[in-house]
Design goal:
Layout: E1 5-8, H1 14-23, E2 29-32, H2 34-42, E3 48-52, H3 53-58, E4 63-73, E5 80-84, E6 95-98, H4 103-117, E7 122-125, E8 140-144, H5 145-153, E9 160-163, H6 164-172, E10 176-184, H7 185-190, H8 192-211, H9 213-218, H10 227-233, E11 239-241, H11 244-259
Parallel strand pairs: 1-2, 1-3, 6-7, 6-8
Antiparallel strand pairs: 3-10, 4-10, 4-11, 5-8, 5-9
Helix pairs in contact: 1-8, 4-6
């Protein structure tokens, strides 16, 4: 039996993507945006994946967290942004378009606007075009991932751009975990040794990618970013080691999401019983 591994193929996990392609070619990888990978995991078509943080909260009875690795930012994240026609403090019942790519960022924005700005916008989920980030019928739009990073670095005229990592840190003083690595509990119970072997391969692939970060960046230079921009983003804004402070911040995020009824309940953080290889810190 081979594990089926999902991978959210954003630049924020470029080192692991590079490691998968150059140091773990034996692992069967399914690539996609967060909502696609989450759905594949939910359907049982993949066993292990990086997932949106909110996906764990919604399916904690069926999933276990893999230790040591995550996608987090201490403050600015630069790839989750709100683009608005008006200052954020002036938003009230305006229409805001939410990208269909991520549920974690959607909930994060709702928490921030409610708690920090006393805003209750009319939200609508649909695709967001990086070349026209805010449609004519809306006041603002939420972007994530590579599209958000591009808009953050190439800010459109006559629009305000807000980094949700900064806004979360301003609200709570905490860092934020945007993605976790998780395994289906059924797979962990039925294939514990295979899980440990696969987990160690994932860690080794991650470490390989980090050791070859420059090569990884150069491998995606066809994208509209400079080497310096990606070098600063990867390991600067974005970090991958799962810390106790990060877990405390994640619990606070879940608490606030549950208080606003954005999730049914605050989940327990349950970890898979795996023996790690080289750690990420």
């Amino acid at each position: 039996m081979s594990p089926r591994i999902g991978h959210i193929d954003f630049l924020n996990v470029l080192p692991l993507n590079y490691g998968y392609r150059h140091a773990a070619q034996d692992l069967p990888i399914v690539y996609g945006v967060p909502t696609f990978v989450n759905a594949e995991l939910n359907a049982g078509r993949i066993d292990i994946s990086n997932i949106s943080s909110i996906e764990y909260a919604e399916r904690s009875d069926e999933l276990l967290i893999l230790p040591k690795i995550c996608v987090r930012a201490d403050d600015a994240v630069t790839s989750i942004i709100l683009v608005s026609r008006k200052p954020i403090e002036q938003l009230r019942d305006d229409k805001i378009i939410l990208t269909s790519k991520s549920a974690t960022a959607q909930r994060l924005l709702k928490i921030i606007l409610h708690e920090s700005y006393d805003a209750e916008p009319a939200y609508e989920t649909r695709s967001v075009d990086v070349n026209k980030p805010v449609d004519d019928d809306a006041t603002a739009a939420l972007l994530i991932g590579d599209d958000a990073l591009y808009v953050y670095l190439h800010r459109p005229k006559n629009f305000h751009v807000y980094d949700l990592g900064c806004e979360w840190h301003k609200l709570t003083g905490r860092q934020m975990i945007y993605a976790l690595w998780a395994v289906r509990k059924k797979f962990a119970v039925e294939e514990p040794e295979l899980l440990r072997e696969t987990y160690e391969k994932i860690l080794r692939a991650f470490d390989y990618g980090l050791q070859h970060k420059a090569e990884a960046i150069r491998s995606v230079q066809s994208k509209p970013f400079t080497f310096a921009e990606l070098d600063e983003y990867l390991g600067g804004a974005i970090k991958w080691n799962l810390t106790n402070d990060g877990l405390d911040a994640l619990k606070l995020y879940y608490h606030k999401a549950a208080a606003l009824k954005l999730i049914d309940r605050e989940p327990e953080l349950n970890f898979a019983d795996v023996l790690g290889g080289d750690s990420l810190g």
